[in-house]
């Protein structure tokens, strides 16, 4: 049996510097117990008995796979279909006008930090419900995350029963296939085909790859992991890939920094790019 030791302050400082340098995630001293609790299982899996040994493994891993395991462990991939109800109510009223004012021939939406896929699939279902079929065909949804593992889960579009229980019954019948043997539900192919999943690091990724602007960006409950300079940098990048009038949706517990001059608040958690 592995004789696992407690996380020391020195080990914690090494780990949080590595995480900040490679993922932009800022860990305060108050997160030390959380990091130990979340990483203890990973140490047991790898047969390691100290966090310094784990840190050395991280540094020597040229593939970057262990960084993904670390990020998955310390971040909370908790999401659900159609969370942030107020945002969907706003969109239901305004989506036709927003679509009419799109900046491209296509209507481009980015789910940034998409986790296990509930957010981009909610966007797809919302568009199917609230836009004419001819308009839906012009919609393109990009969904990105830093974790390859979570993207594989998202791409499969498969969820357990409790994930779909809050959805209206007609949504479940229209947009999911039920596997009675495993009691799981899979997003139907025509919905999955509306979403393009890609690996992308919001802090260190190359935003110049986005040659066409987005009309809406969803980045909810992601910036809570970043410090103020990192958040400001990300907000500036979002502003660069949104046209005037483009919309940014963030989590209800988040807000843009006070010195922000790039967006105006439409209502809490919904911001418009200033022209």
TrEMBL record:
Domain CheR-type methyltransferase: 1-275
Broad enzyme group: transferase
InterPro entries named in the record: Bact_Chemotaxis_MeTrfase, Chemotaxis_MeTrfase_CheR, CheR_C, CheR_MeTrfase, CheR_N, CheR_N_sf, SAM-dependent_MTases_sf
GO BP: methylation
Record Gene3D superfamilies: Chemotaxis receptor methyltransferase CheR, N-terminal domain, Vaccinia Virus protein VP39
Entry GO MF terms: protein-glutamate O-methyltransferase activity
The keyword S-adenosyl-L-methionine is assigned to this record: yes
Listed PROSITE patterns: CHER
Domain of life of the organism encoding this protein: Bacteria
SUPFAM superfamilies listed in its UniProt record: Chemotaxis receptor methyltransferase CheR, N-terminal domain, S-adenosyl-L-methionine-dependent methyltransferases
UniProt KW Transferase keyword: yes
Catalytic activity, as annotated: L-glutamyl-[protein] + S-adenosyl-L-methionine = [protein]-L-glutamate 5-O-methyl ester + S-adenosyl-L-homocysteine
Alphabetized Pfam families for the sequence: CheR, CheR_N
Enzyme nomenclature, EC number: 2.1.1.80
Membrane-spanning ranges: none
Keywords recorded for this protein, A-Z: Methyltransferase, S-adenosyl-L-methionine, Transferase
Protein's name according to its UniProt entry: protein-glutamate O-methyltransferase
Organism expressing this protein natively: Desulfurispirillum indicum (strain ATCC BAA-1389 / DSM 22839 / S5)
């Amino acid at each position: 049996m592995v004789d696992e030791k407690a996380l020391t302050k020195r080990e914690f400082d090494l780990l949080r510097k590595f995480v900040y340098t490679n993922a932009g995630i800022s860990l305060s001293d108050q997160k030390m117990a959380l990091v130990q609790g979340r990483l203890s299982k990973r140490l047991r899996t790898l047969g390691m008995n100290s966090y310094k040994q784990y840190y050395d493994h991280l540094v020597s891993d040229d593939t970057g796979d262990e960084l993904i395991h670390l990020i998955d462990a310390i971040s909370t991939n908790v999401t659900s279909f159609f969370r942030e109800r107020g945002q969907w109510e706003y969109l239901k009223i305004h989506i036709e006008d927003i679509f009419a004012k799109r900046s491209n021939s296509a209507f481009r939406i980015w789910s940034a930090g998409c986790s296990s896929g509930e957010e981009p699939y909610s966007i797809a279902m919302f568009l199917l419900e609230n836009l004419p079929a001819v308009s839906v065909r012009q919609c393109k949804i990009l969904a990105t995350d830093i974790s390859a593992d979570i993207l594989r889960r998202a791409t499969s579009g498969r969820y357990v029963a409790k994930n779909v229980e809050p959805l209206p019954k007609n949504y479940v019948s229209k947009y999911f296939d039920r596997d009675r043997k495993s009691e799981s539900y899979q997003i139907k192919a025509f919905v999955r085909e509306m979403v393009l999943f890609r690996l992308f690091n919001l802090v260190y990724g190359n935003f110049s790859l986005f040659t066409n602007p987005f009309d809406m960006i969803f980045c909810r409950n992601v910036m809570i992991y970043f410090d103020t300079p990192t958040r400001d940098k990300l907000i500036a990048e979002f502003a660069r890939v949104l046209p005037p009038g483009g919309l940014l949706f963030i989590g209800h517990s988040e807000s843009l920094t006070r010195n922000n001059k790039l967006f105006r608040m439409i209502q809490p958690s919904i911001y418009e790019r200033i022209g």
